Amino acid sequence: MVTLKVMSAGAVEGPVRALAPEFTSVSGRGIELIFNTVGALRARFVAGESADVLILSVPAIEALDKEGRFVAGSRADLGRASCGVAVRDGMMMPDISTVEAFQRMLRHAQSIAANDPAHGGSSGIYLFDLLKRTNMLDEIRPKLVLCKTGRECAQTVASGRAEIGITFTSEFVPVEGTKVVGPLPSRIAYVNGYAGAIPVGAADTDARAFLDFLTAPASRARFKAFGLE
Predict the structure, then answer these.
(1) Cα(21)–Cα(2) distance, rounded to whole angstroms?
(2) What is the pLDDT of residues 94-119, one digit of tens each?
(3) What is the value of pTM for the model shown?
(4) How is domain 3-80+193-225 classified at the architecture level of CATH?
(5) What is the pLDDT of residues 18-31, one digit of tens each?
(6) What is 81-188's CATH number, 3.50.30.30, 3.40.50.2300, 3.40.190.10, 1.10.150.20?
(7) Which long-range contacts (C-beta less than 8 Å, at least 24 apart) are formed by 153-158?
(8) What is the DSSP letter of 196?
(9) CB proximity list for 132: less than 8 A, separation 6 or greater
(10) Which of 135, 154, 155, 228 is packed most tightly, with the most Cβ within 10 A?
């Protein structure tokens, strides 16, 4: 059996993990899935680690494409993830309908799980920049429970180790025990697109088949079910 190595950003882990065995069932091709932050995967790829399909944020894919690292025309747009808030299932839902309400939530929360920007997570990088721009970082930093990935952030909320979680809502949906409150208020919203592409030297035909499967209408519906538009 041909096995494709797929390195993917965590924001699309839910649908990609769910769809991979379905692809194997209909195609006979196995899938090895590796999930991490965009920054971590980009660094591994640039350092020489091979993959048949790379799924990253659109800006990261575009930057690597300009360097000639992908098969021409192989990019496939998969969906857009929104940064948002979640709590443990059964907990009271905070008000995040406005920027002011969101800021009140941050101030009243005892602990907040978020991606550590040092690990290259897009949502963590955005959140820290947002807190700096609003002069709240010094106030909120002691409450932050920093995680290496969005999935770890969701698990931290589900286990009760943090009262609030902030990362892409699509990373909360697959983790049992979390409840999505909603995306950040429109004035400070952060939406990131994700796309897949085939690195030069990869198993081109099989990789294209996988990307075609991910972008088929039925698969699009699965992405939407995980909160990716």
Answers:
(1) 14
(2) 999 999 999 999 999 999 999 999 98
(3) 0.89
(4) 3-Layer(aba) Sandwich (3.40)
(5) 999 999 999 998 99
(6) 3.40.190.10
(7) 153/113, 153/114, 153/115, 154/86, 154/113, 154/178, 156/113, 157/86, 157/87, 157/88, 157/113, 158/88, 158/89
(8) E
(9) none
(10) 154
